[in-house]
């Protein structure tokens, strides 16, 4: 399998990177010495001070997005529909057709539920935020890049991936340059590697660590829904042979509910499965497809740099690639000597904490000044403008 070439190109003539051994953008969990232990003396774990908008269960072993109501609806619909099928249709079908029907349905049901739970409760590939010292180092490094011009330094970095230039954006919340294919989920407030989308139906982001489970979930759910739908139709047809259809419906009223649920859900589930099959075959994410990031239209300049140019290799790379460990170490203990302040949310905002929009407007203002010739002349003036714009 082809290896991705990932070489960083220093923009312009950069100053020396941060003094720490890690490259700019490398991150670790922000922990607070003050939070290391509760008043009772119990050592606290990292999930208890996790800065993102997630909920943790079972001592941090399981995690979900904060609003998980739709996930419970998904789980409820699958369990109720399958439960009705096992209770009202399976006994008749096993007696009059074959025992294979309840066995196949049971295997599909357990597969669907296990894939759903793996997707929902897994860390989707969250990148830990930079610690205050790492963020300060990076800010210093970025600041040094802008010393030769009046404009604030651009918050992007270019890397080469498979001979294609890819731009990395700076995340103002996580205080780091997002690695390739990483995006910040506005619902969970985390940067997620190989971010696909935030799925309220599974109550979690879909990313690098849970995409294969998500794909297996929607694919197996398509089969389960179609299987139940076909079996219920068969059940009603067999029952109505001796009498009329209304009498058959009266004998098994739950079948109507199953038919309605399956009929209305099967189209969207089939559509979603087809769409994600196309994404897997092209090694794309939903995020990239919706943004049209690699809409090449035949031009090699913007072709998807992650594609292995073969459907089979792309499928293997996405679905059978290595299992990546979680980087947020949510069960780890907070170290007492791990450094200063608390979570990034409670930090005194540095100039990097402004939103992209405010940064863009600030850049626009700065450019205007330069063009009109009313821009800051001296280094002190330049610093003052930067201070006013970003603090
Ligand atoms: Zn982020
Ligand atoms: Zn999310």
From TrEMBL:
Basic and acidic residues composition-biased segments: 378-391
Broadest EC class assigned to this enzyme: transferase
GO molecular function, one term: protein-cysteine S-palmitoyltransferase activity
GO cellular component terms, A-Z: endoplasmic reticulum; Golgi apparatus; membrane
EC id: 2.3.1.225
Biased composition regions of type Pro residues, renumbered to the chain: 11-21
Alphabetical keyword list: Acyltransferase, Membrane, Transferase, Transmembrane, Transmembrane helix
Region (Disordered), start-end ranges: 1-22, 362-391
Transmembrane segments: 70-88, 100-119, 213-236, 256-281
Coiled coil: none
Subcellular location: Membrane
GO biological process: protein targeting to membrane
Catalytic activity: L-cysteinyl-[protein] + hexadecanoyl-CoA = S-hexadecanoyl-L-cysteinyl-[protein] + CoA
InterPro entries: Palmitoyltrfase_DHHC (IPR001594), PFA4/ZDH16/20/ERF2-like (IPR039859)
Topology relative to the membrane: Multi-pass membrane protein
Domain Palmitoyltransferase DHHC: 168-291
Family: Belongs to the DHHC palmitoyltransferase family.
Domain notes: The DHHC domain is required for palmitoyltransferase activity.
Protein name, per record: Palmitoyltransferase
Species per Swiss-Prot/TrEMBL record: Eublepharis macularius (Leopard gecko)
Lineage: Eukaryota, Metazoa, Chordata, Craniata, Vertebrata
Gene name tied to this protein: ZDHHC18
């Amino acid at each position: 399998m082809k290896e991705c070439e990932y070489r960083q190109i220093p923009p312009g003539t950069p100053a020396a990177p941060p003094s720490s051994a890690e490259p700019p953008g490398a991150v670790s969990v922000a922990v607070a010495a003050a939070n290391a232990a509760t008043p009772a003396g119990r050592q606290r774990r990292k999930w208890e001070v996790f800065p993102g908008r997630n909920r943790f269960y079972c001592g941090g072993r399981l995690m979900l997005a904060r609003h998980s109501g739709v996930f419970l609806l998904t789980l409820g619909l699958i369990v109720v529909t399958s439960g009705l099928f096992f209770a009202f249709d399976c006994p008749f079908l096993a007696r009059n057709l074959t025992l294979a029907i309840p066995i196949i349905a049971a295997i599909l049901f357990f597969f669907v539920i296990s894939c759903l739970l793996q997707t929902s409760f897994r860390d989707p590939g969250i990148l830990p935020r930079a610690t205050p010292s790492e963020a300060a180092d990076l800010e210093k490094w970025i600041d040094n890049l802008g010393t030769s011009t009046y404009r604030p330094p651009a918050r992007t970095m270019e890397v080469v991936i498979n001979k294609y230039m890819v731009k990395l954006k700076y995340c103002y919340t996580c205080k780091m340059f997002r690695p390739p294919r990483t995006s910040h989920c506005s619902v969970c407030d985390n940067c997620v590697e190989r971010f696909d989308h935030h799925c309220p139906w599974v109550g979690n982001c879909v990313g690098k660590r849970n995409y294969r489970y998500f794909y297996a979930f929607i694919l197996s759910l398509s089969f389960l829904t179609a299987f139940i739908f076909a079996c219920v139709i068969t059940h009603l047809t067999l029952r109505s042979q001796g009498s009329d259809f209304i009498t058959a419906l009266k004998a098994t009223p739950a079948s109507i509910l199953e038919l309605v649920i399956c009929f209305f859900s099967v189209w969207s589930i089939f559509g979603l499965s087809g769409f994600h099959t196309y994404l897997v075959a092209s090694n794309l994410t939903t995020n990239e497809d919706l943004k049209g990031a690699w809409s090449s239209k035949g031009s090699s300049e913007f072709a998807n740099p992650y594609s292995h140019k073969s459907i089979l290799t792309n499928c293997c790379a996405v679905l059978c690639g290595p299992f990546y460990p979680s980087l947020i170490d949510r069960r780890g203990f907070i170290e007492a000597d791990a450094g200063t302040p608390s979570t990034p949310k409670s930090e005194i905002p540095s100039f990097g904490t402004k939103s992209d929009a405010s940064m863009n407007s600030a850049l626009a203002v700065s450019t205007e000044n330069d063009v009109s010739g009313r821009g800051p002349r001296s280094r002190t003036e330049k610093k003052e403008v930067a201070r006013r714009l970003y603090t």
